[in-house]
Amino acid sequence: AEGVTAFVDVGYHATELLIVAERQPLLYRSVRAGTARLAEAVGRALERSVAEAQSLVEDVVEITPEGREAPGDEGRVQRIAREEIDALLREVGLLLHAHQGQGGQAPDRVVLCGGLSRLEGAEDWASLRLGLPVKRASADLEWGAAAPTGRARCGAQKALSLALVPQARGRAIEVNFRKGD
């Protein structure tokens, strides 16, 4: 699309931000904060192991507004997930503001990918918190005969984003995502 786009990939251990203008990468940043925070916070709050907490977090399929949580432990998990997602989005917002503070172009839109993009309501919640239009990444590219689906599609989006990272850092390196020889 024309203008400036911020791609935000919220992974398990890290969140990556790639700002692109007119198909040219402007900025790449990564913060060591991802959705693992959710499982750790739920584990502490409910006094469960991280593995048990991760299972509870995976059952959360929607970002619920305050006051609309389910009753009991499910509602506590939803509240914690919302709070941790807010913290992640605040960090993304800080990265965007720092980019603009250094004379960078403000994004016109945000494209969300990674684990966070799988939650219902993630686009609206991120848009509210970042003050920008947000949409989920789509892999509507020419894939040929073997188009990725589901989780593989998210991985393909990440591979495409990573291919642009060397350009954003001002270096040219060969990127090879093939496995084996």
Question: Biggest β-sheet, characterized?
Answer: 5 strands, mixed
Are there runs of 5+ residues with pLDDT below 50, and where? 141-145
Relative strand content: 15-25%
| Helical content band | 40-55%
Write down the Rg: 17 Å
Please tally the β strands and state the result.
5
Give, in order, the helices and strands. Answer: EEEHHHEHEH
Helix count equals 5
The strands making up the biggest β-sheet line up spatially as 3-2-1-4-5
Assign an overall shape. Answer: globular
Q: Could you tell me how far the N terminus lies from the C terminus, measured between alpha carbons in angstroms? A: 36 Å
Structural class: alpha/beta
Task: Please tell me about this protein's structure.
It is a single chain. With 181 residues, this protein is α/β, with parallel strands linked by helices. Helices cover 44% and strands 17% of the residues. It contains five helices and five strands; from the N terminus they run βββαααβαβα. It has helices at residues 36-46, 50-59, 72-101, 122-130, 150-168, and strands at residues 4-10, 15-21, 24-31, 109-114, 134-136. A five-stranded mixed beta sheet has the order 3-2-1-4-5, with helices on both faces. A hairpin with a 2-residue loop joins β2 (15-21) and β3 (24-31). α1 packs across α2 (50-59) and α1 packs antiparallel against α3 (72-101). The longest helix is centred in the middle third of the chain and has 30 residues, at 72-101. The protein is globular.
